[in-house]
Amino acid sequence: MIYRTPEYCKDFRCIADKCKDSCCKGWEIDIDEDTARYYDSVGGEFGKRLKENIRDGCFVLTEDERCPFLNKQGLCDIYTELGEDKLCRICSDHPRYFEWFDGLKEGGTGLCCEAAAELILSRPFSLSESDIHDEGAAGDYDEELFELIQSARGDILDIIGNEDIPLADALSKSLDIAAEVQESIDIPFPDNENDDCGNALNRIFGCFCELEPIDENWLPYIKGCADSFDTMPAHNNDTHIYLRRIAQYLVFRYLLKSVYDGEILGYTKFAAVSVIVIARLFRYSAVNSGCCTISDCAETAKNYSKETEYCEENMEKLLELFADEPFFSISALKKLLTEELS
Predict the structure, then answer these.
(1) Under a CB-based contact definition with an 8 Å cutoff, are residues 292 and 94 in contact?
(2) Which UniProt keywords are given for this protein, alphabetically ordered (predicted)?
(3) Which among 192, 220, 200 has a CA at the least distance from the CA of 323?
(4) Whose CB has fewer CB within 10 Å in the chain, the N or C terminal residue?
(5) What percent of the chain has pLDDT over 90?
């Protein structure tokens, strides 16, 4: 079995107590069955503490939504008491993600982690492959469609990665490639083509403001950005390299998944829309701080990722909107990409 992952993933390291937005806060933490059985077998005072803080297969969060084993130093008591190999699967894997196909496993580090976000933005995107033991975890899918999507994804990643092609043009070409694949499997073609969408950016931000917020600070932040459109500084072309790498991350992570759900164009639109929204958020960050360093950009991208791709309900809602709303049509997005990234 081949394991394919971005080259930079080998350098990911959890920053533990140095993390400003710990993944041990504000998230429901599911415990896999094997680990749950082990925790149930642990004796002594720590075993008692484990049993008291686990209910219905999850850790019981504190009143301020912290994992009960996240100590005051920002470290994990399970890690220090029992060892790294005794963490439950989600704690051991996060922010890593994995997808399985026949003879192929793909993985990477997710943008919602601040350490991973800075790594993604700071490194060129390239893929590495290695041979691993066959894990046999793939679902059923059409092999011909898989090859078609994999080829299209390769073309899209090459186009976005070519810095001689302006980013707006690269994303526009990516939408065209995805549309061709989508047309080959969907009749009628699932896109509401319309480029006559006045105030498209306001409408898009309006949709994002209606999503279910994960962090209580997110909604005021994105509304504040929308309210500041008229007073923002000009787009900073220096951030294009970060936006390219975010687009490559999203295309790599999601496009092959479409062999299971058919959302080839939807996931490509997600990459394009994400670049549009994050580019505006970068400009908003510059309004507030007077500059936009790579750390500022990574923080912004991390927060966006947390509120979109790391909320299943929000991702489902966005994919519905991409197919239904005219301001998310291919032609409307192409026009907006040109306006926002010039």
Answers:
(1) no
(2) Methyltransferase, Transferase
(3) 192
(4) C
(5) 65
pTM for this prediction? 0.90
Q: 317 — phi, psi (to 5°)?
A: -65, -45
User: What are the structure tokens assigned to 31, written together?
Assistant: 């415990």
Output the CA–CA distances (angstroms, integers) from residue 244 to 186, 250, 316, in the order listed.
Answer: 29, 10, 24
* Tokens, residue 203: 């409408």
Burial 159-174 (b: 16+ CB within 10 A, else e): bbbeeebbbbebbbbb
Using CA atoms, how far residue 249 sits from 123, 266, 274, in Å, is 11, 15, 11
Distance of CA 155 to the CA centre of its chain: 21
**Angle at which helices 330-340 and 200-209 pack, to 10 degrees?**
100
Between vectors from CA 172 to CA 219 and to CA 101, what angle results, nearest 5°?
A: 80
Mean pLDDT of 195-209: 85
Q: Which two tokens stand for residue 317?
A: 């809602």
Q: Which two tokens stand for residue 126?
A: 């390239």
Q: How many angstroms separate the CA atoms of 127 and 146, rounded? A: 19
Q: What is the pLDDT of residues 295-311, one digit of tens each?
A: 999 999 999 999 999 99
Distance CA 273, CA 292 (A): 20
Question: Using one digit for the tens of pLDDT, what is the confidence trace for 320-331?
Answer: 999 999 999 999
Question: Pick the residue with more confidence: 289 or 133?
Answer: 133
Is the per-residue pLDDT at 68 higher than 70? yes
Provide the pLDDT for residue 187.
58
Taking residues 263-281, report their average pLDDT.
Answer: 97
DSSP secondary structure of 123-163: S---EEEEE-----------HHHHHHHHHHHHHHHHHHH-T
Sign of the dihedral defined by the CA atoms of residues 259, 263, 264, 269, in that order: negative
Asked whether the beta carbons of 249 and 274 are under 8 A apart, the reply is no
At residue 30, the 3 state secondary structure works out as strand
User: What is the amino acid identity at position 167?
Assistant: L
